[in-house]
Predict the structure.
Amino acid sequence: MTFASHQAELLSPAQWPLVEALFKQVFGHALPRELTQWKYAPGRGLSIGVLADHSSPTPRLAAHCGLMLRDLSAFGEPVRAAQLTDLMVAPQDRGRLLRMGSPFAKVVGHALAQLGSATNPGNPDRLTFGFPSARAMRLAERLGLVREIDQVHEVCWTPAPGPLPQAVETADRAIAGIVDHLWSLMRQDLADALIGVRDANYFLGRYLHHPTRKYQLHLVRSSQGSPLAVFALRRDENRVELSDWVAPLATIPDMLSAARAVSWAESGTTLTSWITQGFVERLAVDAASHGPTEFRIICRGDLPAALWQRHHHRWWLTPGDTDYR
């Protein structure tokens, strides 16, 4: 089959069933409609696809690449960046993956073309990031579409007994004010980094109202009652994941002690988290182990050399910055 006449296009909500069908075919499990909407509803993201056959009475996608729009603090400046997600190609359409005219190249190229455009305003440097699989990363690199800017490391701790932090179950004014205060301190500490905004609007919405995932939120206070951190945990069988947190850098050890105590109280065997390479030492306090994963963080392939040097190992990304954890 030739795709010369099949261009990548922005998909409408009416075409979401095609995205979900391809997702099920590629990954072997469903993409719930609530999650599709959470990613690609107007104002939240863009869904881009190449249709395999326009004339077919039952159209399908040959390839797909999504963009989730994300507010960043980039070296202290506000940016509306875009995160590449749901990059997939139908198995029957993978024969020409390494050609620029392939469905894979078309969807990634069209996604990158949206950066800084009318569909992604507030992104003058056309910033993008993502957590592609090792295979997708290699393919996109060989086509010159993306390059590596950072790498994800996994950090593991042994659960340990200790004082338990306060559980957060509702997004009331008090907790929203605490999160906003902690975010202002965290943003100042990371003024030399690229970090997704973690204010109350984002953080509480992400972890208290996610459409398909359940998280535990906890508030850590000092012995005098001052707020030190708010963090999100996710249980995965016997493992507990520290998915995300809002805290100034100086209180990370207090947060980790509290997270290990919660893991101990819930009989977790291991507490784990992710952090990008440039900040591993900040997180690996009393860690049992840490090391690189297969996931490399992307930037666009034509990022100017000066920007690449400035951004290299300056991304702050955690498990919660993905679209799937």
User: Anything to note?
Assistant: The chain has a mean pLDDT of 94. The first strand starts at residue 9 and ends at 10. The two ends are 36 Å apart (CA to CA).
